[in-house]
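worker-3 :: picked Membrane protein
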Amino acid sequence: MRTGSQIVRVAFTYIGTVVGAGFASGQEILQFFTQYGGLATLTIAISTVLFIWIGIKLMLMAHELKATSYEDLNRVLFGHKIGNWISLFTMLVLFGITTVMLAGGGTVFEEQLHLSYQTGLLVTLVLAYFVLSRGIGAIMTVNSFVVPIMLMFSLVIVIYTWHSPSSDNWLRITSDASLVKIGFAPFLYTAFNLAMAQAVLVPMGASIEKRSVLYWGGLLGGAGIGLLLWSAHYALSAQMPGIAQYEIPMGNIINRLGSAPQFAYLLVIYGEIFTTFIADAYGLSLQLQQRTKLKPKVLLFSILALSYLVSQIGFKTLLSILYPVFGFISVIWLVLMIWRNRYRAM
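worker-3 :: tokens ->
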């Protein structure tokens, strides 16, 4: 039973780390999959296989290396010198995403709960410090609560869409996009998300004693991500092409279901923001511990405080530059992960 519980916790942490606010809004699924029509089912299947395969491999490599942070893994993949530069760049992007997630938490409080933006920031920071100061075990526990809500919510969406007259759109809709663009989308999506997820997957892989727990946890987690991708694609396809005009396409679907689903959706959005926020902040703190002599709690407080300051001015311009570049580096990272056969998968 203890092994089974660990497998579920690893799987839920994997899902919670990958699935962020962009996923919950539906915008990521729309841009990478649904807009490409019926072929999206195939590309989601490709992504799911990659999430299972590379997720397992990533955690097992971390387990064998006893990696302290993703920096140790990058040195193996890229070599010591280039690995250091990749890790520094990853740290910068992680901080950018951390700041955006914190700002997202403030926005949820302001727009949905009608409280002040600053209240949302401070509540998120206090909750994050409480969790992060307790280490990877606390992060896994938070995901064990948040991810089941996500899964149940996805089931509700699928059932609602099932009764829609356009429920078979996911098989019928077409796209004018080139096959090259459609075929590249799942690799770019998976590469970027896995490269960011290493902030938590690496220390988690190193901390779990049994390889079998990591294997089955990675298998279950990758499959769960694929299931969430397909359920969102299924729901969005039924509303195409009109749904593409909305900034939060899933929100448009939820608004038709009544107040209870709307509240559940609010919890899902905030939960996904929070799990991504703590995952990235934790990865940053581990890497900085390797580079400085500061105490972990001092580092953690500094990261959260700096995130709070930057969230006041926004980070959109910098991210618009970093995201495409990091997307390119992430694809190289994915290729190297696939190429590395030294570490067995079982």
